[in-house]
Every structure is written in C-alpha cells, then in structure tokens.
Amino acid sequence: MPPRSLSRLPKGPPGDVTGGRASASGALSENAMSISLSERWFVRGGTVNGVLAWLLTGVLVATAATSLLAGRLDSLIFAGAAAAAALVPPVVDRSWRSTAPWFLLFVASLPLVFGASGLFVGEFVSGLAVSALALLFVVALQLTTSVRMTPGFAVVFVVLVTLATAGFWAVASAASAAYLDTPFVETNDELMRVFTAAALAGAVGGSLFRWQFRRQLARARPHERTDEGGEVA
Amino acid sequence: VNLRDALHLSERRQGRLVRLLQAGIALVLGLGLWYGNTGIVVNAGVGLLVTLLPAVLRRNYQFTMDLGLVLWIAVAMFLHALGTLPLPGLDFLTPYQGLWWWDHVTHALSSSLVAGVAYATFRAVDRSVDGVVLPSRFLFAYLLVFVMAFGVVWELLEFYVAVAGQLLGGSSILTQYGLDDTVLDLVYDTVGGLLVGLFGTAHLAGVSEQLSDRLSARTAGR
After folding, report:
1. Is A146 helix (H, G, I), strand (E, B) or coil?
2. Which residues of B touch A162 (CB under 8 A)?
3. Is the Cβ pair A146, B222 closer than 8 Å?
4. Who among B145, B180, B182 is closest to A161 (CB)?
5. SS3 at position A171
6. What pLDDT score does B26 carry?
7. A29, A163, A184, A190: best to mutate for the B interface, most B CBs within 10 A
C-alpha cells in the first residue's frame, strides 16, 4: 500500500459510516481512500436492486446445484461461494432488501455464462468475476467478523486475491488433471495467458472498485462533515 | 524457537557468514562477467543488491533487522545466484538445470521471505493504520493469498523476461522449464508461506514492530 494512502485520521468506532471523523476541509483528498470501509458500504437497500440481486442469487444457487449434480467442482465452488457471499447481507440485516449491488453479482456470475469459451476474453471475464467475488467476500467479512478495511486496503486485497486465485486454481486444476483426468491447460504459455488475464482483470477490477469507492465517498462527504477535523488542517 | 539458538550461532559468526555468502555471490557475479553471460550477471547482481538492503535500511532509516533474518535473505540470494552458474560437477549444467529440486528449494526460500514481508506488513498495518482491523484469525488466509499472488507475479515476470529476451535475441535471464515446473513452483511457494505461518513469526516480530512504529510516526507527524 502506498504510504500516501495511510490514514491520518483517528480510529473511529465500528459502524460509523466514515469509520473516522471526516476532515473539516471536506475536500476529497488522497486520504479519503484511507477512511474505514464501513460494513454498510456495498450493501444497498433499494427494491429494484433487491429484486435484481435476488434473481442473480437465484441463478448462482441454481448453477451451484447443477454443477453439483454434473460433478463440475470448479463452477460449484465459484457459484456456491458467490451465492453464500450474496446471502450474507440480507441474513445479517434480516431484510430481503439489503443486498449487495446487483451489478457486482452480475459481474460475479458472468463466467458461468462465458467461462468455458477458452478465449482470452473469457479468462479476463473470469478474473474480473473473481475480483468481484473477492469484494463480496470483503463485505461479508466486515458484516460477520471483526475484520475492518479501508477502501485503499480493500482494493489492494482484492487484487491480491484475484492473482492468488489464479495460482490456487492452477495448482488444484493440475492436481485434478493428474488424478481425476479433468481438462487443464496443455502448455506453460497457455497458463501464462491465464495468469496474464487474471493480472489484468485484477488491475481493472481494482481500479473500478477504487473509482466506485471514491464516488461513494464524494457522495457521503457533505453529510459526514463534523467540527472535529481541525487537527488535520 | 529462535533459529540462532537452534544453530548455536553467535552474532559475530552470523555476520561473518553473511559476508561469506555475499562474497560467494560476488564471485558468481565475477564469473558471469568473465563468461559474458547476461543471465548470471543480472541474477547475481540483483541478489547481491538485495543482501545489501538490510545494511542500507539500517544506515539510512535506522531500521534494524534481526541478524538471523539477514542471514536468511543472504542464503536465499546465494542459492539463487549459484543456481544460474554452470558447474563442472554437473557436466557444466547449472544447478537450476541439472538438479530438479534446486528450483523448488530456492522458491520455498524466497517465498518464505515474501511471506515474512507479508507477515510484517499485516501486523504493522493492523496496529497503525486507522480503520484497518485484521484479527489474527485472518492472518493465515492473508499469508497464503499474499504468497500465492506474489508467486503468480513472479511466474509472469519470468515468462515476460524470457519473451523479451527472445525478442532481443539475448540469452535467457530467468527461465521457465514448462507447465509442470511452473505448477510445482507455485506448490513450493505455498509451502514457504505455510512454513512462515507456522514457525516464522518469532523472527519477524521485531521487523513488524519497527514498521508499525514508523507508520504511527508518519501518522502523528502530519
């Protein structure tokens, strides 16, 4: 994490929307990205979003079920994990309306449609979906455990998870190819193409989330001003 | 359990051992220049610079590392540099080419270092970056993710350096030996990360404390 994104703000109580006290200047500066990622972020309460999110969650659950019946372990794990992460906000809040943003779920379920194409685009979309899933998991972790992240840290973490997932996928697929005779890439160049796609997807996903965080912050800022930011200025 | 106590090494002897390993890397570097082999020169040169890093950090930033850790770094860099040198005992193949396990040893060693960095930053960020709370239960998963991500980046680096080398018509600097080898590299990367998760934490406590003090000082100083 670049030192400039390290926070200068005092630690705030968990549950506080900004996680700390916003500076009086109100300007969206570098340290905006270091304000604590509230567990409420990326949880929406709208009806339209809720309906779309539940439709997509249904698709994920159905995909997980058919993968289980078809014995396709990789899509079972992926769809199952995405569905589980999608179910955390409504379960924790006991409200069907509070769900993850539908677009995040949409991106996470894309490879279940395009994943098996074997094209670079398909691999890139898979990587993007992994980064969306990683962000869903960060949200779920914040809702259910004591883990708290700043947007800056969350973005770095999402990129790391996207890269690492490609690595774990390679190890697991190679083992599965050796013992269960399942398909796997045939040359090192192909594997490097998959890794490249994952790295690109991680970078693109990370930048998208960063941009999204900044947008949310800019929107939240005017209401979050307090008179306690003098120490910073 | 402290590595130093386990090996009965005095501070002075450890320091001497580090110098010896640095001299070894310098020797490999010299031989690389003598042979005109870019691969050896780059690998040994970078390795030597990395072993000098702790001293630079101490001099310029008053950031002292546990001497055992410095030795750990030096061993990893020495084995990596030696691995690129054609040896008479191996019919003038390099250890990387002639010994199937060499690559895995160096990978596990360097990934344990990467995991060490991951551990130190984890503790430091948890303690001194406001808004970030990372409970210890999260550490193991974080270490694995960090090390594996770095392993993937490393493989990509090896691949693209080789591609660039081919395009420029030079000898290869970092080499990949095929799909199985890449996958095994990643497995050994994971092993290195697991080892640090299980045993390596005692050595790294000092590093992470200094790092977190540094972060806090930065926070307070603004």
Report:
1. coil
2. 149
3. no
4. B145
5. helix
6. 94
7. A163
By the 8 A CB rule, do B96 and B44 touch? no
ipTM of predicted assembly, 2 dp: 0.74
Gyration radius of chain A's alpha carbons: 19
Output the tens digit of pLDDT for each of chain B's 222 residues. Answer: 455 555 566 777 888 888 999 999 999 999 989 988 877 888 888 889 888 888 887 787 777 777 777 888 889 889 988 988 888 877 888 888 888 888 888 877 887 778 877 877 787 777 777 778 888 778 888 888 988 998 898 888 888 877 777 777 665 556 666 788 788 888 888 887 777 777 655 556 666 666 677 666 665 554
pTM for the whole structure: 0.73
Name the residue among B146, B186, B218 with its Cβ closest to that of A160.
B146
- φ, ψ of residue A140 to 5 degrees: the values are -65, -40
Q: Which residues contact B92 (CB under 8 A, 6 or more apart)?
A: B86
Do B149 and A198 make contact, defined as CB atoms within 8 angstroms? Answer: no
In Å, how far are A93, B23, B31, B56, B108 from B53, measured between CA atoms? 50, 15, 23, 5, 21
From the list B132, B149, B187, which residue is nearest A164 (CB)? B149
Contacting residues of A for B129, CB less than 8 Å apart:
1, 6-7, 34, 150, 153
Q: What number of C-beta contacts closer than 8 Å exist between A and B?
A: 119
Q: Which residue has the tokens 């013992």?
A: A179
